[in-house]
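Moderator note: this is an archived Q&A kept for reference. The question asked for a predicted structure of one protein chain; the sequence and the answer are reproduced below.
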Amino acid sequence: MITFQREPVLDVQHQITPLFKKHWQEIANYQDQIPLDPNWDMYDRLEQSEVLHAFMARDNGLLIGYFWLLAVPHLHYRNHVFAHADLLFLDKPYRKGFTALKFIKFAQAELKKSGIKVMSMNTKINAPFDALLKRAGFKLVERVYAKHLGIE
């Protein structure tokens, strides 16, 4: 049975590391210049300050995915908290069906209970999931461009 719940980051650090590596290999930009090296201390501090909202997906206890968002009062709208996705990953065998949609909707409900007004997510050009986000009620509102400043 697949379940979704909030779990402390440091409690899952060792279980999540193999999934982090899969996720990084699958979608990370600049892999040849920027190695995977999660800042667990910072994640813990952000979680302790209630900025990081870390949700896990499990199948009969086995960690199969994670959805982490950072939530802070918006600098332009100080009375409104916006949450932005840091990481969303489901192991490949769980990407069929409605698991991802249920996971996103679970996070939406939890964030709403916390008083968060807006939730935003990016998708990678090489691994888009726009149809899923539209199904979850998201609208395309901006585009993101990036440049590695060490590469000319």
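Archived answer notes: The CA atoms of residues 54 and 68 lie 4 Å apart.
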